[in-house]
Amino acid sequence: MSLLDGIKGWLSGKKLHINARFETLGTPIKGRAGEVRKVREKKTGEIYALKVLDPDFLKDYEDRFSEVECPSEIDVALHLSAKHPCLLKTYEQGITTTDQPYLIMEWFPGKSMRKIFEGEYLRARGHRLEIIRMLAEALDALHETGYLHRDVRPDNVLISEDMTKLKLIDYSHAVPAKREYVEPGNRLGFSDYLPPDSLRKNADPGPRLDIFAFGVTVYQWLTRNIPWPQTDTSTVARAFREAIDLREYVPNIDDTLASAVASCLEAKPQERPASLHEFLQRIQYVEKVEHPRPIPPPEEAVPEEVEEEEVKPDLEEAMLNAEMPHQDRIDAPEDALPEEEESEEISEEE
To answer: Is this prediction's pTM over 0.85?
Structure first.
């Protein structure tokens, strides 16, 4: 029995006629695993996300894991539903009238992390730290269920308009955290987010595989760049090159946060945090992504000799003041000194 046949066998009840039950709002979004559309249920007026899975993707997924029994995206979505506020809720699953498996999930209005840091980077600056914490909590909750996400990247992180809520989405690549699911032949994901150890046999099937991708995602959220030179497109090459220091892009970044993110990007898995709970513990006292720049000294704090030069009287004023040692310094113009002019005229007559 194929994976698709198995899904059909597990599901029961009436098939879904999409257009009869729902009104499609906007343009459907097509991805590798299927199509997602925003829909309004005609009977209740409720808004949902309807995902129709692609049979070709399911077939390819089945072939990839032909030697092991791999759960479907439907299984994973149902398993993760309501496990954490930052994971999507799944309300229903079944088969459409066109014999395609579907999921009805909560609709989350928001933008992808990638769209935000590419187009609204400055507006996001005040929310960057809290977004990092929410993403870490979501992925940690997923790991606690015994699964790996295997496709953590900015495109699969949705952030609300006010940047106070987040959802980690797309469980089409999620697999149980077991060695047989992470062998090189079963490798999943995009090269920018794959750790070097994912290419090795007997790779550790624990959270550290996802933690590397989490580190790349957070690095991009903070800098809008991947952690390596653009010429390093090979996962193997990155095993021999350290990530570019975050301070190259964010000079005033909090040292604790910079160190914690860098640890997620270590080529050796044993040098990464063992869990995202550990990562969260490391940054628990971080209050801001960046510290303010040092304030330069005030301009008036200049050496005394400079002040003396600036107020040093000219030679004529010095001589005048020397002739009248018991008087205050005279700064008046010459025509305001009648007594001195008279004394000069008397001396000439003599």
So the answer is: no
